[in-house]
Specification:
single chain; 360 residues; alpha/beta; 7-stranded mixed β-sheet; 12 helices; elongated
Length: 360
């Protein structure tokens, strides 16, 4: 099996130069770098990752803990994380916490015990044990999609998520602009930052449209399909049921559609529907789903970039980055089909990602 010394001899450079090329620890002249890479290919050299980790205390691996990996939204986030990690020369270890605080703490500990250099975590609704563990062990961490309570001390944690409140408010005001006065919301799992922000956006949208807030129109679908189906049943059982519905994630959109079909209701003829989270196949539904599209792949890539920044500079101030969403204007809201209109033409002009330091 060829060694690093063999690569150095073939390329006509020192072993230290080969190490710098392979590990990215120091700039190397382009022609020298290419000579090393050519020698690596010609000899079939494979770096000894385990030996390198013993010397550097780094494994060049990232732990990723996200719930509901089968959810298309998190699947796309995973693709963004994987692509960015691979480009930076990092491998991934993946675990599903199942949105269970106790299981979450366990899987994060298991990832940590495998000596990952840092973590990317979509926290549960009760992340106190998780944050406590990561804090005690000073694990560089980026919280993804869901923010932790800013009152939780977390000086070396960073966070990245999409905007939630304003896009939800836009769905509500769009429906109100079409004449709807009773607009229901199927909200997510209580305790998640995304749930709280989308409820706030729903209420802001009602206020902007000059509509009163009827508490009966706000129901909880617990961020999953079956819960949303039950929640939609409850809304339809009201004596003055809503004429329009906003669902707060893609799994709950499926549950709501099941309930509407079971009740014999057509969208948008009998009830209008808008959803938070776009589907790759949303334009194949009949009607095509009006939705807020989150930049899921970019969220994953941004989380990796922030973690690498933290690894390179452990004492840097903590950051919270928010990425803009897009409004995908289709027909489930009750608007007529516009020939030739593409999804892209329905996008809101995207502001730059917002970034701020936090006291967390």
């Amino acid at each position: 099996m060829p060694t690093m010394a063999d690569v150095a001899r073939s390329a006509g450079v020192s072993v230290a130069t080969v190490s710098h090329v392979l590990n990215g620890t120091r700039p190397v002249l382009p022609h020298t770098r290419q000579a090393v890479l050519d020698a690596v290919d010609a000899l079939g050299y494979t770096p000894n990752t385990l030996a390198r980790s013993l010397v550097t205390s780094r494994t060049r691996s990232i732990g990723l803990a996200v719930s509901a990996i089968s959810n298309p939204y998190f699947t796309e986030i995973l693709q963004g994380v994987e692509a960015a990690a691979l480009e930076a020369g990092y491998s991934l270890l993946i675990a599903d916490p199942h949105d269970d605080p106790r299981h979450e703490r366990k899987v994060v500990q298991l990832l940590h015990e495998r000596r990952v250099d840092g973590m990317i975590v979509a926290p549960s609704a009760e992340p106190h044990d998780l944050v406590g563990y990561l804090g005690r062990h000073t694990v560089p961490t980026v919280f993804l999609d869901r923010l932790i309570d800013p009152r939780v001390p977390a000086p070396f944690f960073d966070q990245v998520c999409a905007e939630s409140a304003e896009p939800t408010a836009r769905l509500v005001t769009h429906l109100a602009g079409l004449g709807h006065r009773r607009i229901g919301l199927v909200a997510g799992l209580p305790g998640l930052s995304t749930t709280g922000e989308r409820i706030a956006g729903y209420q802001d949208g009602l206020s902007t449209a000059g509509l009163g807030h009827d508490e009966r129109l706000l129901v909880t679908g617990n961020s999953e399909s079956a819960g949303a189906e039950r929640a939609t049943d409850a809304l339809l059982a009201l004596p003055d049921a809503p004429t329009a519905l906003v669902t707060a994630n893609n799994a709950m959109t499926i549950g709501a559609l099941r309930a509407l079909r079971r009740h014999g209701l057509s969208v948008p003829e009998d009830i209008a529907l808008c959803c938070f989270d776009d589907f790759a196949w949303a334009d194949l539904f009949s009607p095509r789903l009006t939705a807020v599209a989150q930049p899921s792949r970019e969220l994953g890539a941004q989380a990796v970039r922030m973690l690498l920044d933290r690894l390179a500079e452990p004492d840097r101030p903590s950051r919270t980055v928010r990425l803009p969403c897009a409004f995908m204007h289709r027909t489930s809201c009750g608007c007529p089909e516009r020939p030739g209109r593409t999804e892209e033409s329905g996008r809101t002009p995207a502001p730059k990602p917002s970034e701020k330091g936090t006291d967390s």
